[in-house]
Amino acid sequence: xxxxxxxxxxxxxxxxxxxxxxxxxxxxxxxxxxxxxxxxxxxxxxxxxxxxxxxxxxxxxxxxxxxxxxxxxxxxxxxxxxxxxxxxxxxxxxxxxxxxxxxxxxxxxxxxxxxxxxxxxxxxxxxxxxxxxxxxxxxxxxxxxxxxxxxxxxxxxxxxxxxxxxxxxxxxxxxxxxxxxxxxxxxxxxxxxxxxxxxxxxxxxxxxxxxxxxxxxxxxxxxxxxxxxxxxxxxxxxxxxxxxxxxxxxxxxxxxxxxxxxxxxxxxxxxxxxxxxxxxxxxxxxxxxxxxxxxxxxxxxxxxxxxxxxxxxxxxxxxxxxxxxxxxxxxxxxxxxxxxxxxxxxxxxxxxxxxxxxxxxxxxxxxxxxxxxxxxxxxxxxxxxxxxxxxxxxxxxxxxxxxxxxxxxxxxxxxxxxxxx
Length: 421
Ligand SMILES: Cc1ncc(COP(=O)(O)O)c(C=O)c1O
Prior knowledge:
With about 425 residues, this protein is an alpha/beta fold. About 40% of the residues lie in helices and about 15% in strands. It folds into 2 domains: about 30-290, Type I PLP-dependent aspartate aminotransferase-like (Major domain) (Aspartate Aminotransferase, domain 2); about 290-420, Aspartate Aminotransferase, domain 1. It contains 15 helices and 15 strands. The protein has a 7-stranded mixed sheet, with helices on both faces. Helix 5 links the parallel strand 4 and strand 5. Helix 1 (about 30-40) packs antiparallel against helix 9 and helix 10 (about 290-310) packs parallel to helix 14 (about 405-415). It starts with 5 loop residues before the first strand and ends with a helix. The structure holds pyridoxal-5'-phosphate (PLP). Pyridoxal-5'-phosphate (PLP) binds near residues 133, 136, 228 and 241.
């Protein structure tokens, strides 16, 4: 039996009528026995709950490995670091090489950079959409790689395969994509480009739990897909991430990397981090996994309602989801055409805020205009679609607290916003 979803927090106490997001959590009773056991045994980390969670996720996604980490950001950082070393180890281990997608790829060292060499010059370029969350280029830059920002397809908000193709250069070492707002990106098209050019494909699947393509959960395909389990996601651990991959050596690298690079011998094989997921988080995530399909179905129902009501208004655009695909609707993001709608996204946002309705302007500013990343951006390469989306996108309240009445309230407020501003 599917347990009830528990909505955490008391928005009224914070003076907000409709909060942007509230986590949809399993009921306390579903988690309590695990918490009791963890406290009783004192096994707070590296225990059976993480193992159980990894196994359950790998089965669900249909991948060889699901490695639990402390966040999606740490997962992405370790994956980019591991691609080099994993490629090296694949070559020396023929048994694994045949099954390993990384084995066919060149390591970063083909660019003449010794692994232990100078870190002042970037090792290579990673092609990545600018219209994405700042953690993704951060993971690239942390590895002394250079993010090369490209366009998304404004209809889907996901990276445009044509733009990827056009950006590939002799310096390219990887392709990065994202299932933006939970809308599955076009993995077959991206994989075809990656394979043609012998490049790894890293998918930021932070919004991916709850999304599927032809009934199969997203997570397989590409070199690795990296999920987030933070409170705004459909599957919640508190904080946490999952690295899903079919590559034995990349999974091995991430397991070592989350453990300081220590394989147990107390001789660090490379500089790692503490990227472990605590047992408490894994226990919550296991219970959250039980209600994931229910949470995703509900979000899709509510997204359908939003769409139905708002499509009657001029100048509102919706994210296009491919036939056979299902978005997790981690966010329900619309676009506002200021001329046709009659007011700008920012003015609408202010009008909603004045009525106690919280929204978010994802992703504004886009990554190529953020302080940490703007120096990477080639100003001769304008990104008009990205700029347009960044100035027009508005994510509406979505989460465990949203129901039919909330959707009606938000839509009515949007419809009347011009009179309210
Ligand atoms: C698209 C995207 N990528 C990466 C992240 C980072 O995830 P985490 O907070 O688990 O590190 C987020 C966080 O929301 C995100 O939205």
